[in-house]
Amino acid sequence: MNFSTKSEYGLRALTILARQYGKGPYSLADIAKTEEVSLPYLERLFAKLRSADIVESTRGAQGGYQLSRSPELINIYEVVRTLDGYLVPAVCVFETGPVIGQCKRVQNCRLRGVWRKVQDRLEKTLREITLMDLVEKKPVAKKKILPKAKR
């Protein structure tokens, strides 16, 4: 499971807007130049972010984009979900839908519980980190990693 460039570039661009929060619209062309990302690609990403009410746009010479609310109120999960859809370690994590029918073992699978736990922790972690955390470069809390089991 990998995060796509949509999420990576989107989060990098939104971090710029988070730093500029309260100062008015910021040019997408300037973001593209600063982050070395194609402007048309950012325009597609920002169309999705605007539809999800994460950013708002202003037209005109002084126009551009700004966050629709405070960076403390926008979490990483919301952005990733908007740009990438669901991030799942295995398709069987979904409760319903066409993907369930793809695996004959879904009802008796010993791994499905593991994948669901991974999914829950991933979502929890992404919901805990906000755009303001990225601006302030707050480290994500590290928990003690257990040693590898001996073979």
Automatic annotation (TrEMBL):
PROSITE patterns: HTH_RRF2_2 (PS51197). One of its GO terms (molecular function) is DNA-binding transcription factor activity. This is Rrf2 family transcriptional regulator. Keywords: DNA-binding. GO terms for cellular component: cytosol. Pfam families: Rrf2 (PF02082). It comes from candidate division WWE3 bacterium CG08_land_8_20_14_0_20_43_13. InterPro entries: Tscrpt_reg_Rrf2, WH-like_DNA-bd_sf, WH_DNA-bd_sf. Gene3D superfamilies: Winged helix-like DNA-binding domain superfamily/Winged helix DNA-binding domain (1.10.10.10).
